[in-house]
Amino acid sequence: NGTNWQHAAILCSLSRALGIPCRIVTIYNAACQTDGTENYDIHWDIKQRPLKQLNSDLICASHVWNECWMRRDDLSNGEHDWQIIDSTPVLMCDGIRRTGPCSVSFLKNSELGFRWDSPFVHSTINGNKAHWNVYPDGNMELLDVQENIVGSKIITRSLTNEFEIEDITENYKNLMKSSDRNGNFVKRPNNDVDFELKLSDDMKFGDNLTLQLHATNKSNETRTIATALSLCIISSSHQKLISCYDQPIQLSNLGAGKNENIPLKIRPEQYM
Question: Highest taxon of the source (predicted)?
């Protein structure tokens, strides 16, 4: 029992006691894709309610594993390198929760044919979040893709100051090429209306929730916008627990090449 950071701390202490250099690593927005792709899929019905039976992929706000410095003679470089080991992976291997050792440098270069568990570790830190609209007849429409959201930041404790962190994301990812990677990623749909939801930074719990939905029509024709708002409580793995508030769909027209700010306001009694 316990959380992944507790297991990682124990594994780090055990490794060091055996003389193996080890450190604890935290991954933000760590994913577990169950369909073998590098897409974290979220499915919605026509009323924009999440479909739990289809949303089997998991994404956690953070996950913690270990890196051990060791030599791997079975790899082509045969040199010392950081190796990922994880005592609390989401998926099981041979009936045991274990992952690795997996080379960090090989992972960065997407060389996934080497042991151990390279494809699984790679999908944990790479991927897009794809939103799908599921119609009653079973057909699906891609609504939006949030690119490079999985594994958004990877950190460890700084060697020079124990109260500071060291960003080691570049050890895992080639950030200069991340936007050019194709892999199994779903491409963002070519929509001609862009939306941006803005939330005030100085709001406090118990205040009115004031949001602005900024819409931009890039087409040469008038577009009809259907706006709906839903508030819900979610778990640390981004799974919906309970609905707090649902605002019915509102229709409005947006002229060609025009911008519009659509205000959305929720009173405290509607979400508390």
Answer: Eukaryota
Stretch 75-94: mean pLDDT? 77
Architecture of 193-271 per CATH?
Sandwich (2.60)
Tell me the whole-structure pTM to 2 decimals: 0.69
Residues 6+ apart with CB under 8 A from 93: 99, 117
Residues 72 and 107: their CA atoms lie apart, in Å, by: 14
Q: 3-class DSSP state for residue 255?
A: coil
pLDDT above 80 for 119? yes
Tokens read off for 200:
């005030």
**Which residues neighbour 13 within 8 Å (Cβ) at sequence distance 6 or greater?**
none
Tell whether the model's pLDDT for residue 184 goes beyond 70: no
- The residue ranges of every structural domain in the chain are 4-36+57-128+148-180, 193-271
